[in-house]
Backbone:
């Protein structure tokens, strides 16, 4: 009898892990039990086996630019150190020409394949601002994918325009939007949102806008920001809502769990969160995501941005298949002062090779475009 089978027999979640290995889809109660279990290493082994069935030892990443186009925001989320209220002396909005210039520089220096465009909820920006940027980028750099504007930003644009979110999505797609990131989800439970982001859209609105995007042929990523005021039950409910939507639409192409960084945030100043949740929690969340999302969402990112390169390398053995992006120009996490928030292609490739895996560069839709021997 193999060591893994012997360990499964002794584990408090062995029945769940056996069903996962057999390809069965799991439910809320299974998710709760996995999150309560302390057998992180075995959960990680099973998650890694599921990942290797799909990708072997191959790990992907993307060369990309993050374009944080404005830090002006009227949502005032307590977990955010990036935003500035309107008329604040440190508030900014990047002009259309400057946005395109930055993309051009990143294309020339790093041969980026994606621009990830996110910012605050700025009530002074009309939809034409975004359309003009997208059209200009696509005109000059048609091979660069535009991965932009989370559901909460889409909601803000719709409010400014007094329009429907579906019409906003349709217009942005026509202007060049390729896919949308999963920001604004945090934890998809309104009990949590009432504490950390009371002025932001509710959970059902995030899910509705994501479904609208998927129905319009706009794929997206899904995210979970954990490690603040939420409970295990909140995490499980949030993940199950993503699973339920994916079963309906199939529009999520990746899932990205990342831990809350409390530095310079109101949650820390109020004493609600003192420390980040740490690396072991990352490995657990990565593993559970792989197991719960098996055959539903293929790609799980290792979240180096909030946990560092070392933990991201470990995550590659716990079910993650993607290292994420180079993130040139990132400003949101860097506002917490946590760590450097840009990596070069060379550093990512080296990090992947150091753990005995093969690095590949991908595009926005996770198609492999280059192998690194």
Residues:
């Amino acid at each position: 009898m193999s060591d893994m089978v012997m360990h499964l027999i002794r584990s408090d979640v062995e029945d769940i892990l056996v069903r996962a290995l057999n390809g069965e889809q799991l439910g809320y109660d299974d998710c709760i039990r996995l999150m309560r279990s302390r057998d992180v290493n075995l959960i990680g082994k099973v998650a890694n086996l599921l990942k290797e069935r799909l990708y072997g030892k191959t790990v992907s990443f993307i060369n990309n630019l993050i374009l944080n186009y404005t830090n002006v925001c009227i949502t005032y989320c307590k977990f955010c150190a990036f935003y500035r209220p309107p008329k604040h002396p440190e508030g900014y909005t990047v002009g259309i020409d400057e946005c395109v210039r930055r993309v051009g520089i990143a294309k020339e220096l790093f041969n980026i394949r994606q621009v990830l465009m996110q910012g605050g909820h700025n009530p002074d920006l009309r939809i034409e601002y975004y359309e003009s940027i997208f059209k200009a980028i696509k005109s000059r750099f048609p091979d660069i994918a535009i991965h932009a504007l989370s559901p909460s930003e889409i909601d803000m644009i719709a409010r400014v325009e007094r329009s429907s979110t579906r019409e906003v999505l349709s217009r942005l797609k026509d202007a060049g939007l390729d896919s949308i990131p999963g920001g604004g989800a945090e934890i998809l439970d309104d009990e949590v949102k009432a504490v950390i982001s009371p002025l932001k859209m509710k959970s059902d609105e995030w899910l509705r806008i994501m479904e609208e995007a998927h129905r319009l042929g706009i794929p997206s990523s899904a995210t979970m920001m954990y490690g603040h005021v939420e409970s295990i039950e909140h995490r499980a409910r949030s993940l199950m809502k993503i699973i339920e939507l994916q079963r309906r639409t199939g529009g999520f192409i990746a899932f990205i769990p990342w831990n809350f960084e409390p530095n310079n945030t109101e949650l820390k100043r109020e004493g609600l969160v003192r420390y980040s949740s740490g690396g072991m929690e990352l490995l657990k969340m990565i593993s559970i995501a792989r197991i719960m999302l098996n055959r539903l969402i293929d790609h799980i990112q290792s979240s180096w941005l909030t946990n560092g390169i070392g933990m991201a390398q470990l995550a590659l053995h716990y079910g993650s298949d993607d290292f994420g992006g180079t993130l040139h120009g990132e400003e949101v996490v860097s506002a917490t002062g946590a760590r450097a928030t840009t990596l070069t292609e060379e550093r990512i490739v080296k990090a992947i090779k150091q753990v005995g895996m093969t690095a590949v560069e991908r595009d926005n839709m996770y198609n492999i475009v280059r192998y690194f021997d």
